[in-house]
Specification:
Number of domains: 4
CATH class of the largest domain: Mainly Beta
CATH architecture of the largest domain: Sandwich
Strand content: 15-25%
Largest sheet: 5 strands, antiparallel
Radius of gyration: 38 Å
CATH superfamily of the largest domain: Jelly Rolls
CATH topology of the largest domain: Jelly Rolls
Number of strands: 16
């Protein structure tokens, strides 16, 4: 059988043959640009669809009208295949437009679920169009049959479909997004790391991933801690015996809030009296943190500061508060004077005997400051340990010509230990935020104790080295490299002996 050149040329120039070539080229071109640029991918889809439609119409094929193509059986099959591809191409183009331009006002990750749903509906509509226009079959019977099948499948997959439709509702409504911190029924809380058709993945505070079905979330009480801002409010309750007046207790606890390093200054923290009786005064401390994940750290710091501030002020916790120290635990501190109570809360002097603490407390000197007053400037070598009796101090450092607040000191906190014991200068400036009173332990007051018991130098050096390595000394972050060198305690002990002329 001889095939002439003219017949080959006629077949090659046949619009339907060219339509098949365009389909193949368009498929590979779209695959190349898929994932690189959604706009370029859509433009290629549009160009391929327009050329395909033009070639089909030029070949006498109207894909959107039902009918049988003339010619041999092989040609009719080829034309039917082109019509099916044309309808699928129309759906493909519509989905490409959806991916490229329809964002639905959401984040790309969240809108993908809705886009997938719309894409499925578009392809389903194209399938019915193919049945009606290409194969010229009645659609009503197909719809009835597919409806019955859908009912059977729906009953079998009722639970899974419930998760899917709940996921659709959650994504459309958008009560949370990836990256938000949510709380479900006051039991499960954490950061949303993934949402899909079936479930939501939550990274909990224990660094575990909780996979919660969407149907469960849709029925749960949900609290989104990340909207409208990530700022989160919290509160703690403190019950004190009425040894202080209510207003004095409020002022004391307000200083504790102002001295916290984890609490935001705006909105302003508050102290409210919730109850008053002959046995107790019930205070509520309300505050805000930058993120819900910081609530635990802020709460721990507050309880520690409340305990130390109460000890300094001679206030006692009400026995009604579970686990709180009662009269037996705080009675000695209450009966002592302010200097003795301040010393009792300083770990640096934990190795001193009761007699030594009394002797040292008798040498402490009180100094009062107004709000906004500079107590110590950068580079000063303090010759005394300064303990805050009341008020709030601010420690700041200068970086690039700007003052940066790094720490706040409340009642019971202290600074100057490095200057007193090692002769090192302070790496920052200390100012008062409110009216404040400070008790000082000078070098002259500490020298008699060190000379009477020389091994106290080693005890103080061990404690000071431990505090520095734990980053619990004033502005210690600036000496990070030095603090981690070997023999820090020995060097501190040597400095103490040199400064106090011990042999």
């Amino acid at each position: 059988m001889t095939i002439s050149f003219s017949s080959i040329l006629a077949a090659a120039t046949d619009p339907l043959f060219l339509a098949g070539v365009v389909i193949v080229l368009g498929f590979f071109g779209a695959r190349y640009w898929q994932g690189r640029s959604s706009l370029a991918h859509f433009l290629i889809q549009l160009l391929v669809f327009v050329i395909l439609t033009s070639l089909l119409l030029a070949g006498g094929v109207v894909p959107y009208r039902p009918g049988v193509a003339p010619g041999a059986e092989s040609r009719r099959l080829f034309v039917s295949a082109l019509e099916v591809i044309w309808w699928l191409g129309a759906a493909w183009l519509a989905v490409g437009f959806l991916r490229a331009f329809v964002v639905l006002g959401r984040q790309p990750r969240e809108s993908k679920l809705v886009q997938d749903l719309l894409a499925a509906l578009i392809y389903l509509a194209a399938t019915f169009a193919i049945v009606a226009d290409v194969f010229d079959l009645p659609v009503r019977g197909l719809l009835a049959t597919s409806g019955a099948v859908a009912i059977i499948i729906g009953l079998a997959l009722q639970s899974s479909l419930g998760d899917v439709f709940s996921g659709i509702v959650l994504n459309i409504e958008g009560p949370y997004r990836v990256g938000d911190w949510i709380i479900l029924d006051d039991t499960v809380q954490g950061k949303v790391i993934e949402t899909n058709w079936r479930a939501t993945h939550i990274l909990t505070g224990n660094q575990d991933v909780a996979i919660i079905p969407n149907s469960v979330i849709a029925k749960s009480k949900l609290v989104n801690c990340s909207t409208p801002t990530r700022i989160h409010g919290a509160s703690i309750r403190v019950k004190l015996e009425p040894s202080l007046t209510p207003i004095a207790g409020c002022n004391l606890l307000k200083e504790v809030l102002l001295g916290s390093t984890h609490i935001l200054r705006t909105p302003e923290p508050t102290v409210t009296i919730k109850d008053l009786s002959a046995e107790m005064i019930d205070f509520e401390l309300s505050y805000s943190v930058a993120d819900v994940s910081a609530v635990d750290r802020a709460q721990n710091e507050l309880f520690d500061r409340v305990y130390r501030a109460a000890a300094v002020a001679g206030a006692r916790f009400s026995p009604r508060l579970a686990g709180a120290p009662g009269k037996a635990a705080l009675g000695d501190k209450e009966s002592a004077g302010i200097p003795e109570r301040l010393l009792a809360g300083i770990s640096l002097f934990s190795t001193l005997t009761a007699e030594e603490k009394v002797a040292l407390a008798s040498q402490m000197q009180r100094k009062d400051y107004k709000a906004g007053e500079v107590i110590v400037r950068t580079g000063t070598i303090l010759q005394a340990l300064c303990i805050v009796s009341y008020g709030v101090l601010v420690g700041s450092v200068e970086e690039n010509g700007r003052k940066l607040e790094v720490v706040r000191l409340a009642p019971g906190d202290y600074f100057g230990e490095s200057g007193l014991l090692t002769g090192k200068s302070l790496n920052g400036e200390v100012t008062t935020l409110t009216r404040a009173a400070i008790y000082e332990i000078s070098k002259d007051a500490l020298a008699p104790l060190l000379k009477a018991r020389p091994n106290m130098a080693e005890e103080l050096s061990e404690t000071l080295a431990s505090l520095q390595l734990a980053h619990r000394t004033m502005f210690d972050h600036t000496d990070y490299q030095e603090q981690h060198q070997e023999g820090l305690a020995d060097r501190v002990a040597a400095n103490i002996r040199r400064l106090f002329s011990l042999h």
